[in-house]
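Customer ticket, subject: "Can you confirm the structure for Peptidyl-tRNA hydrolase?"

Message body: Hello, I'm evaluating your service for our small team and ran a test protein. I'd like someone to confirm that this is what the system normally returns, since I don't have a reference to compare against.
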Amino acid sequence: MADETFPWLLVGLGNPGREYAGNRHNVGFMVVDLLAARVGGKFGRHKRTVADVAEGRLGFGGPKLVLVKPLTYMNLSGGPAAALAQFYKVPPAQVIAVHDELDIPYGQLRVKCGGGEGGHNGLRSMSKSLATKEYVRVRFGVGRPPGRQDPADYVLSDFSAAERKELEFQVDRAADAVESVILRGLEWTQNAYHGA
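Agent reply: Thanks for trying us out. I re-ran your input and got the following:
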């Protein structure tokens, strides 16, 4: 179970800059932005690393959250995540990475702890920098690219018009799943969200 003496580190994976804001690859940023709004946290540049950080509590007197948007670009996300985990003394089991996932259809979520990175450079960087794979991942399905489109181009393009109609709901659901991991645990969250 979670250790209440330490905060939870919620790392949204994405790329900084307005040109990337609506990309599939930036859904992690979208989810942590919503979580920050829910807990009344305001993002600001952290003095120790290249990341925007917001802090808040989940509910009145609830667990402390440290929300992170690394500003190093996706492939180097692990450096700021590891630096902040060390700064806030967060154990790996209380680090949650929120990221896009090609191998899951759009509109589906999967939550797991540990495992491989599935070719996701942001996760690869986090595993290397944290020196462990034993952190939680909230995987936001973006589906496979159509036809022969390069997966790298696909994740760096914006959600389609049809997807955007549901995007707010899907981001809201992903934020709920993150809160569920913290308040109810991984297994409960998997049971609740994997069937949908």
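A couple of notes from the result: The mean pLDDT is 95. The chain is about 35% helix and 20% strand. Feel free to reply with more questions.
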